[in-house]
Amino acid sequence: MASQTRQSAKAKAHATPGGEVEKAGVPPAPIRIPYLIGRTDRVVKRRLSEALAPHGLTLPLFTAMSVLHARGSLSNAQLAERSFMSPQSANEIVKTMQAKGWLIREPDPLHGRIVKLSLTDSARALLASCDETMKRLEGEMLDGIAAEHVALLQQLLTQCARNLR
User: Considering the domain 56-140 in this protein, what is its CATH number?
Assistant: First the structure.
């Protein structure tokens, strides 16, 4: 009798898009946007790491190099903040980039104690070689989404980040 009850309960339940089990007669809880963003973030990080490995890059290295490429010359503290990493992690990334010949360190002309970091030509060439890989991954992620919706997604995610700062 108990096994029949369990079987009928299983027959009345089914999984929701988020993987939760929905019971008959009980509406599913909505999938929260922070959960969806977090789930997407984990998948994107994994896929980016896989895509960057053949280029000899880790995701933190690629992120820091991309930030320096986009922003030009930055201090270590600015690089850490804009790359979403701790100052200690940024120090390790800077050491790695310097050892690989991807980084130029110059004193800040406006502040004697600050060192400005910028990319070498070889680092920029490496980023350029990663660009097609990134375009393919982004295209795969956005497959089936209309261009106007992609633009809207960019605007909305930017606004969400701005709202939480």
Answer: 1.10.10.10
Q: What percent of the chain has pLDDT over 90?
A: 75
How many residues would you count in the chain?
165
How remote is the C-alpha of 115 from its chain's centroid? 27
pTM of the model: 0.75
Helices and strands (DSSP H and E) totals, the chain: 7, 5
Pairing of strands 14-15, 111-119: unpaired
DSSP codes joined into one string, 23-64: PTTSPPPPPPHHHHHHHHHHHHHHHHHHHHGGGT--HHHHHH
Token pair recorded at residue 54: 């053949």
Instruction: Categorize the per-residue pLDDT at 14 as very low, low, confident or very high, splitting at 50, 70 and 90.
Output: very low
Both tokens of 38, joined, read 């977090």
Q: Does 43 score more than 60 pLDDT?
A: yes
- How far apart, in Å, do the first and last CA atoms of the chain sit? 56
